[in-house]
Write a structure and sequence with these properties.
The structure holds 2 protein chains of 2 kinds. Chain A is built from 17 helices and 12 strands. Chain A is an alpha+beta fold. In chain A, strands 1-2-8-5-3 form a 5-stranded mixed sheet. A 3-stranded antiparallel sheet of chain A has the order 4-12-9. In chain A, strands 6-7 form a two-stranded antiparallel sheet. In chain B, about 55% of the residues lie in helices and about 0% in strands. Chain B contains 4 helices and no strands. Chain B starts with 8 loop residues before the first helix and ends with a helix. Classes of the chains: A alpha+beta, B mainly alpha. The interface between A and B is medium-sized, with 18 and 19 residues.
Chain lengths: ~400, ~90
C-alpha cells in the first residue's frame, strides 16, 4: 500500500481525504515501505496510539540534523535550539517540565482575556476587505488574527507580528521532514529570527518585567528552576509559530469549507449557539497537522497488528478524522449532531495546549464571517500549499 | 566548479556511482544501480544529503523524495534524464 507516498510524497494531493478513505478501506493500521513504519489511519487505532504512553516521540530531527551538519559544514544551531523546545518532540521526564512552563502561560492567559483582541482584529480586516470590494481569505482573514492574539498574550508589539509570522510560515516546512537541504538552511534562518527576537524580549524583561505572558513565563521559571533563558526563548518561539500557523491554517480551511455550505452559513447566522460545534467540525474536516510520528518502546498490539519495540508509527490525524466508521458522510460543518471527538489537537500526553485558544479564535472568526451574507468564495481559484504534513491554503479570493 | 558542467547522462551516472562508492566504502565497479538506496542501508537523511550534493554539482534543483519514489537508482536516473527531453 503506497500510503505514505500518496500523502507524504513529492506531490501531495490538494485534498487528501479521498486518498484517506481509499486507504482506510484497506485497514486501520497498515505497513508503509515509504514511511518505513506503520501508518495508523483508523480513528480508534489513532486514539489508542496517541494515548499509549509507551509510544515515544519520533525525534527524527535529533538524528537527522547532526548528520546534515556534518555533511554541509553548517551547524543549524537555531534550528536545534528551537526544535529542542517544541513540546511535542520531547519525551518524559523533560516533557513534563516543558509542558508545565507552557501550561502556566496558557493558564495565565485564558481565552476570555484574549477574545476582544481576536474580535477587534477579525472585524477590522473584514470591514476593510468588504469596503475594498474583495479580499484574500488567507492573507486578509485567516493569517492576521492568530499572530495578533499571541502577540497580545506574550506582550510584544503588533508591528512585529508580520515578520515573525513570515518566519513561522517558513519554519513549519520542517514537519515535512524530507525535503531539499537548501530548505533546511531557510528553516534555520527562520528559527534564528524567532529565537533571537524572543531572546531579546526576555533580556528586556529581566531588566523591566511587565504584565505580559513573557514576564509570566520568566516568573514561573524563576519559581520552578529548570528552564534557562535560552529555553524560554525557545518556548516563546514555539508558542508563537504553533499558535500562528495551526490556527491560520484552521481558519482559512474552515472558512473555505463553511462558505461552500450556504445552508450552514444561514443556520449559524440564525443560531450562533451552534458556532462552537460547527467550528469543531470544521477543525475535524480540516486538520492543520496531518501526521505525527511515534516510536514504540515496547511490543504491543495496535488496531489489528502487532507492533514491535523500535517500530516507527505515523498517526494520520486527517485520516482518523474522516474515518467513515465514526463520522458518517455528510456536509461539513455538520449541525445538530454530536460528533465523536476529533483528533485534530492530538490526544494523550501531547494534547494541544492551545486547543481552547484555537476554538475561541474559530468561533470569533466564523461568527464574523457568517454575519456578512454578501461574502462569496471563489473556490476554483483556491491555491493549496505544497507542504506535505502541515496542510493549508496559500490563497483564496473572496468576492462580494 | 569552473567551466561548463558536464551534465550528460553518462556524467550523471558516473557521479552517482562515485558518490555511492565513496559513501559506502566500496569499489565503484560494485555499485549496482538496479538497487534502491534502502537496499544499501541508506535512509532519507542520506537521500537529502546526496540530493544536496547533486544540486550543488549539477546546478539543478532536486527533491530528495524522488529517491523513494523509484525502486532503483537506475529508474531515478532515467526519470531525471527524461525531464531533460521535455525541456
Amino acid at each position: 500500500v503506497a500510503v505514505g507516498d500518496a500523502i507524504l510524497g513529492r506531490h501531495p494531493p490538494a485534498d487528501p481525504y479521498p486518498t484517506y478513505r481509499r486507504l482506510l478501506a484497506t485497514g486501520p493500521v497498515v505497513w508503509s515501505d515509504y514511511l518505513q513504519g506503520w501508518a495508523v489511519l483508523g480513528h480508534s487505532a489513532a486514539r489508542q496510539a496517541l494515548r499509549d504512553d509507551s509510544l515515544l516521540t519520533d525525534n527524527i530531527f535529533q538524528r537527522m540534523v547532526p548528520r546534515l551538519a556534518a555533511a554541509t559544514g553548517h551547524d543549524f544551531a537555531a534550528l536545534r535550539q528551537l526544535h529542542n523546545c517544541i513540546a511535542f518532540f520531547i519525551d518524559p521526564p523533560a516533557h513534563g517540565r516543558a509542558r508545565r512552563v507552557l501550561a502556566s502561560l496558557m493558564a495565565r492567559w485564558p481565552t476570555a482575556r484574549l477574545r476582544a483582541t481576536a474580535e477587534e482584529c477579525v472585524e477590522r480586516h473584514l470591514e476593510r476587505g468588504c469596503r475594498q470590494g474583495g479580499f484574500d481569505l488567507v492573507r486578509d482573514f485567516a493569517r492576521p488574527m492568530p499572530g495578533i492574539v499571541v502577540a497580545r498574550m506574550l506582550g510584544i508589539p503588533q508591528q512585529d507580528v508580520a515578520e515573525l509570522a513570515r518566519a513561522s510560515e517558513t519554519f513549519v516546512r520542517l514537519f515535512d521532514v524530507i525535503f531539499p537541504v537548501r530548505e533546511y538552511h531557510r528553516i534555520d534562518g527562520a528559527a534564528r529570527i524567532l529565537i533571537d527576537y524572543f531572546a531579546a524580549e526576555i533580556r528586556a524583561r529581566r531588566v523591566r518585567p511587565g504584565e505580559d505572558g513573557i514576564s509570566d513565563m520568566i516568573r514561573y521559571a524563576d519559581a520552578h528552576p529548570g528552564a534557562s533563558d535560552a529555553e524560554l526563548a525557545g518556548f516563546c518561539a514555539f508558542t508563537f509559530f504553533a499558535c500562528q500557523e495551526t490556527t491560520a491554517s484552521f481558519l482559512a480551511g474552515g472558512a473555505a469549507t463553511l462558505l461552500q455550505n450556504p445552508a450552514a452559513v444561514a443556520a449559524l447566522r440564525e443560531d450562533p449557539s451552534q458556532l462552537p460545534s460547527a467550528a469543531d467540525d470544521l477543525l475535524r474536516h480540516h486538520s492543520p497537522v496531518q501526521a505525527v510520528g511515534r516510536v514504540a518502546s515496547a511490543d504491543r498490539s495496535l488496531g489489528d497488528v502487532r507492533i514491535a519495540a523500535g517500530d516507527r508509527i505515523v498517526v494520520f490525524l486527517g485520516a482518523a478524522n474522516c474515518d467513515p466508521a465514526v463520522y458518517p458522510a455528510g456536509p461539513c460543518p455538520a449541525l445538530d449532531r454530536d460528533a465523536a471527538p476529533h483528533l485534530a489537537f492530538g490526544d494523550g500526553r501531547h494534547f494541544c495546549l492551545g486547543a481552547p485558544l484555537a476554538r475561541m479564535e474559530g468561533v470569533v472568526a466564523f461568527s464574523r464571517l457568517v454575519s456578512r451574507p454578501e461574502i462569496r468564495l471563489d473556490p476554483d481559484r483556491a491555491v493549496w500549499s505544497d507542504r506535505r504534513n502541515f496542510r493549508g491554503l496559500v490563497s483564496c479570493p473572496v468576492l462580494l | 566548479v569552473s567551466g561548463p558542467i558536464d551534465s550528460s547522462q553518462a556524467a550523471r551516472r558516473d557521479w552517482v556511482v562515485r558518490y555511492l562508492a565513496s559513501l559506502l566504502g566500496i569499489d565503484a565497479a560494485d555499485v549496482d544501480l538496479t538497487k534502491g538506496l534502502g537496499e544499501y542501508g541508506l535512509d532519507s537523511v542520506d537521500a537529502m544529503i546526496m540530493a544536496g550534493q547533486l544540486e550543488d554539482h549539477f546546478q539543478i534543483e532536486i527533491d530528495p523524495a524522488v529517491f523513494f519514489e523509484y525502486d532503483t537508482l537506475q529508474q531515478m536516473l532515467d526519470a531525471w534524464n527524461a525531464t531533460d527531453r521535455k525541456e
